[in-house]
């Protein structure tokens, strides 16, 4: 097995490592079909990162879609009486990525904890998210926030729909000036003004950041959100990844679906977030289910820069044969492979192939000590 | 290495002066030449000069960790970046402008010439006005004068260009100014230095 692992690229190894990680915490592998009726996505368009869905007509005339998302399917397929299930998946989703005018097939792995409320379940899911990132690279960072905090804050200052949209867009960019522009026409109390100001000026230390948020809570819902985040951060500290955590109120998901803890993972050297997750009780509620739910997904398309094999050679040995040595090439190759080399057998040097060494069958035989193979 | 994307042109010059004033100057930047990348390996700084509307992309895709971009380019291309500070220069605004004395004919869609289709579309949608967009990459003011469009949506600084072409602002859309922007991932890992630059630039404003 070690030999196999040695030959695997990081990209091939990662799913195997992650499956083992999720299994060891009792999560069960869940396989799904690649299609769903299109209506499922039409009704939940805002849940999708990007609203484009690749559709086709099934043999019975129904409009179907190639899955753009996995969590929606898991939420839909959860029975009302399933109070607790822990699943992980490794699937392909079909999305339109920014800057590309075609649909792209994206490998995605993730886990879902249906029935996971606050407290330990959040600690477990966040720890597994941290372990997922750690498996990819020790240089990672986890941004966390709480949707309940921002939702309650917005309720307090009650902007109209246009101002709210502008405010959310400004906050997601951490732009203090644009946030002020967005709520410019609303008369705010000093405390409300402070609560907005603090959002873009939090200290780096997560506990200090939570302390700053706590000071400007305008109601019980905001205080409860800070409390819940404190529990999660304390757990992260206990488990040794507290220094990876950033409290980041600019991290915003759609509040129609997400209601509690939300988080995003970054890897040093990769420009965009590679992992995102959080509490999506509201998604389940849309399907008439009462269970709380937590989960996250890892996007393999964001990792290619890191996982792409940066090898100098495609093979260790390029073994060349001619008419005379053709019948002995197979045996020579087997012997070189048995020694642990990656061997490519060809009659001529293939264009563009980078081999560490190029030898003929005769030369190989000579190296084996003159013995005819 | 901290990579900084600055726009070419006037805003870039001002931006570089601000960075130089807080100790991030590079003598080679001040020489007259056509180079686009300037690096000081020892101090770990690299500047790149790029087209103003491209700064947001360099930063969004992580080729630059931070940059200086106009709010106009942020609003138009909606990059996934942090907009950390209003630098206090490059002030201008998005506006709808038309030939002096223009009267809107509500019986047909409005023909709008602009370099900023997204901003224009959102503005007229919020007004409930149906439009036809003509995307131009320069001399937008010319379009209404020769009948290519009814109005324009463009960046207005002093309004001098409009006056010279016998046009006037008929509606204000959004203010703009130069912003210090950062790549979201870079910010996670270089937060100390980026925050330091931010607070120094803010103090020097």
Concise overview:
Chain A contains 15 helices and 14 strands. Chain A is α/β, with parallel strands linked by helices and 373 residues long.
Key words describing this protein structure:
heterodimer; A: 373 residues; alpha/beta; eight-stranded mixed beta sheet; three-stranded antiparallel beta sheet; 22% strand; elongated; B: 205 residues; 8 helices; 33% helix
What does this structure look like?
The complex is a heterodimer of chains A (373) and B (205). By secondary structure, chain A is α/β, with parallel strands linked by helices. In chain A, 40% of the residues lie in helices and 22% in strands. In chain A, strand 9 and strand 10 form a beta hairpin. Chain A is elongated, with a radius of gyration of 26 Å. The model of chain A has no long low-confidence stretch (mean pLDDT 91). Chain B has 205 residues and is an alpha/beta fold. In chain B, a hairpin with a 4-residue loop joins strand 2 and strand 3 (45-50). The relative contact order of chain B is 0.20. The chains are: A alpha/beta (373), B alpha/beta (205). At the A-B interface, helix 8 of A face strand 5, helix 7 and helix 8 of B.
What does the secondary structure layout of this molecule look like, with pairings?
The complex is a heterodimer of chains A (373) and B (205).
Chain A (H helix, E strand, L loop, with lengths): L1 H6 L2 H15 L3 E2 L5 E3 L1 H5 L10 E4 L5 E4 L4 H7 L7 E12 L6 E12 L5 H17 L3 E7 H11 L3 H12 L3 H7 L7 H10 L6 H10 L4 H19 L6 E3 L13 E7 L7 E5 L1 H6 L6 E7 L4 H4 L7 E6 L5 H13 L4 E4 L8 E6 H7 L6
Parallel strand pairs in A: 1-5, 7-8, 12-13, 12-14
Antiparallel strand pairs in A: 2-4, 3-4, 5-6, 6-11, 7-9, 9-10, 10-11
Helix pairs in contact in A: 2-5, 5-11, 6-11, 7-8, 10-11
Chain B lengths: L1 E6 L2 H15 L12 E4 L4 E6 L4 H6 L5 E5 H7 L3 E6 L5 E8 L10 E5 L2 H11 L3 E5 L6 H4 L5 E6 L3 H5 L2 E10 L1 E6 H6 L1 H14 L1
Helix pairs in contact in B: 1-8
């Amino acid at each position: 097995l070690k030999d196999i692992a040695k030959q695997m690229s990081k990209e091939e190894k990662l799913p195997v490592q992650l499956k083992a990680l999720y299994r060891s915490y009792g999560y069960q592998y869940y396989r799904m079909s690649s299609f769903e009726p299109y209506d499922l996505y039409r009704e939940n368009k805002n849940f999708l990162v990007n609203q484009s869905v690749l559709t086709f007509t099934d043999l019975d005339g129904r409009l179907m879609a190639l899955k753009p998302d996995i969590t929606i399917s898991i939420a839909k397929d959860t029975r009302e009486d399933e109070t607790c299930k822990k699943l992980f998946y490794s699937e392909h989703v079909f999305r339109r990525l920014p800057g590309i005018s075609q649909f792209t097939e994206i490998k995605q792995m993730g886990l879902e904890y249906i029935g996971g409320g606050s407290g330990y379940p959040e600690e477990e899911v966040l720890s597994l998210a941290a372990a997922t990132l750690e498996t990819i690279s020790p240089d990672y960072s986890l941004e966390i926030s709480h949707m309940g905090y921002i939702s309650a804050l917005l309720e307090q200052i009650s902007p109209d729909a246009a101002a709210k949209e502008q405010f959310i867009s400004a906050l997601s960019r951490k732009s203090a000036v644009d946030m002020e522009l967005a709520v410019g026409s609303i008369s705010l109390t000093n405390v409300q003004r402070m609560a907005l100001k603090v959002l873009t000026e939090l200290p780096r230390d997560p506990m200090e950041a939570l302390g700053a948020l706590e000071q400007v809570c305008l109601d019980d819902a905001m205080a409860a959100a800070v409390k819940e985040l404190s529990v999660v951060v304390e757990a992260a500290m206990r488990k040794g990844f507290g220094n990876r955590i950033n409290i980041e109120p600019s991290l915003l998901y759609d509040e129609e679906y997400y209601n509690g803890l939300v988080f995003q993972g970054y890897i040093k050297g990769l420009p965009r977030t590679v992992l995102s997750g959080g509490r999506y009780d509201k998604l389940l509620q849309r399907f008439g289910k009462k269970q709380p739910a937590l989960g996250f997904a890892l996007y393999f398309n964001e990792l290619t820069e890191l996982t792409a094999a940066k090898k100098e050679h495609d093979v260790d040995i390029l073994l060349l044969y001619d008419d005379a040595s053709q019948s002995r090439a197979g045996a020579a190759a087997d012997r070189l492979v048995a020694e642990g080399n990656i061997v490519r057998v060809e009659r001529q040097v293939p264009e563009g192939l980078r081999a560490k060494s190029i030898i003929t069958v005769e030369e190989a035989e000579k190296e084996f000590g003159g013995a005819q193979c | 290495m901290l990579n900084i994307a600055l726009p070419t042109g006037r805003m870039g010059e001002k931006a570089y002066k601000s960075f130089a004033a807080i100790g991030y100057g590079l003598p080679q930047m001040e020489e007259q030449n056509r180079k686009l990348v300037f690096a000081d390996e020892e101090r770990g700084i690299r500047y790149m000069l790029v087209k103003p509307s491209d700064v947001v992309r360099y930063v969004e895709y992580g080729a630059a960790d931070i940059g200086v971009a106009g709010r106009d380019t942020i609003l138009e291309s909606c990059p996934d970046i942090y907009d950390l500070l209003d630098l206090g220069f490059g002030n201008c605004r998005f506006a709808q402008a038309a030939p002096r004395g223009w009267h809107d004919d509500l019986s047909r869609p409005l023909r709008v010439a602009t370099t900023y289709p997204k901003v224009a579309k959102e503005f007229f949608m919020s007004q409930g006005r149906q439009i036809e967009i003509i995307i131009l990459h320069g001399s937008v003011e010319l379009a209404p004068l020769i009948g290519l469009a009814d109005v324009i949506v463009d960046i207005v600084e002093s309004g001098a260009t409009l006056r010279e072409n016998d046009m006037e602002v008929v509606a204000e859309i959004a203010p703009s100014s130069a912003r210090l922007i950062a790549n979201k991932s870079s910010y996670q890992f270089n937060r100390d230095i980026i925050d330091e630059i931010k607070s120094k630039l803010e103090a020097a404003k």
